[in-house]
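Please go through this protein, sequence plus structure tokens, and consider how the sequence yields the tokens. Keep your notes short.
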Amino acid sequence: MCLLIYLLCLTISSITGTDNIIKLEVTPSTIKLGLTSQMEIVCSVAPDPTGSYIVLNIIISQSTDTLEPQYTDVAGVEAMLEPSLYVNNSATIQGQISVTDTSYLKLNWTYPTENEAGRYQCVATLSQDEEFTVVAETTVDLEQPDFDDLFSELDRIKSYFMAETRNVTELWEKKMEGAVTAVFNRSAVFDNRMYLLSKYSNMSRNQSEAMCQFVSGYLAEIESDQEFGFVKEFFNSLYMANGTKVIVGGTDQVKEGNWLFQHSGHNVTYFSWAPGHPTNSSGDNNNDCLALDISDGYNMVDVPCNTSGQNFRSRFLCEITHSPYSSSQ
């Protein structure tokens, strides 16, 4: 008789005061179909600082009927085992059973559907001389979105993609800034344009044009005495070996003596020829591209469009609209 009373007292004392042991939390508590992007349910069981009980398992169940719940186990976690889903469910699952830390079972859904609405129950089995359970419940409501909800979501998506586009653009421009600095010397701004002088030598006209296009530019099209003067000042600020020729826009490959800009297709109307140029008048029809000769005061000369293997060094000059990859000019 005394033993029976003793065991009964143990059982009653183990159940008393368990309200704060277990928590069942859901975020958000209402699913808006098609708009709620994430839903999370967490059942947590606090550890006993005195060590008077230990957690054996946690099980989360669901009932689609919220008035007269008939629960079906959804997921569970047991001591020494990985958490498991008991039904065919799209949730991701995490959980642990611990003696010293909080024991928990967590379910997460991406874009939850009406299947995730309903009444949820969490049951944790504990041991304190003998086993007992603690229970927590919560409800997930379902709501059809209205026009305002849909409009707000579209506005949120628009803002998100605009922000992401800005982030990608900023990252791209930072990387391109580094690439431009490695490959080119950059001028100051002239008439909302900038000039990039290649640091590398002896590319063909087509290769030079491709490099300019890669940085959103084109081979420089010099169209006035003022622009030519600006380019010469830019060259004067840099070191270039004597004899270097700088390829710019302009070719008469289509018709001998008829100089055209490759990018715009316009006729070249401004010239500052070095003495003896253009050489086409002397019957040399291979010099079909325009260049600036460092050895002759940067005046214009006609040179072969493929400068590889020639007896001079060549570089090329790109022209870009002032904005891409320019942080300080």
In short: The radius of gyration is 38 Å. Residues 1-17, 324-329 have pLDDT under 50 and may be disordered. The chain has two domains: 22-143, 184-320.
